[in-house]
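Session log. Operator J.P. requested a structure for one protein chain; no other inputs attached. Running the standard single-chain path with C-alpha cell output.
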Amino acid sequence: YALHSIPDLGELVTLGFQAGNASLAARHAADARASSAPELVALALDLLNSPRAAPRLLWLHILDVHAPFVPHPGLERFGGDVRGRYAQEVAWVDAALRPLLERLDDSVVTVVFADHGEYLGERGKRGHDLTLYPEVLRVPLLIKGPGIPPGRRTEGVSLVDVLPTLLQAAGVQGVEARAGISLLGPLPRRARLAEGRRPGGRA
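Structure written below.
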C-alpha cells in the first residue's frame, strides 16, 4: 500500500501506521495545516485522480472545526453565538467533503471520525481539554465500504478500533494492531478505557 497524508504524517504515526512506507507529494507540505477544508479536499481529489501503481491509503485531516469558530456566509441560520458558529463550521466542512465522498464509490473503504468532542459552555468549559466527560469523549464514527451492510451499531466502540477495522477491510495479513478490534464482525462485551489529565497527574 502507498500511504498518503494530507496535510502531514504525524497523526498516522500515533495511530500505529509505519511512516517508513509513506508516499507523500511535495505539495502536501506542513503549511497545508493552515489550509481550509475545500483546499485540502481539492488536494485529495487531485491525488485520487492521479495514476497509481499500488492500492492507496489516504488520511485527510481537516481542522476547520476548531476554535475560534468562524462564521460562514449563507450559514447564518445556525446563529452567531458559540454554538451557532460551531454548527456553521460543521456544515461548512460537510459541504466541503461532499465532492470527495461522491468520488469514493462503494468499492472504497471510507471512514469518517472526529478525534475529540468540544465543550461549548457545558460544565463551565470551552474547548477540548483532556477530561473524561461525554462532551469530549463521544464522537461520530462512520464506516462505508464493500461488504459492510448499512445500519447503526449500538455497542460502544473506540477509535483504537479504526486501525484493526481497516486492516481487515483491506485484507492485510500478518499485521497486528497494537490495540482495538475490528468492527466488521460481532463485538464482544469489553471494557473501554479513556484517559484524562488533571493538574499534577492523570485522571
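Operator note: The chain has five helices and eight strands.
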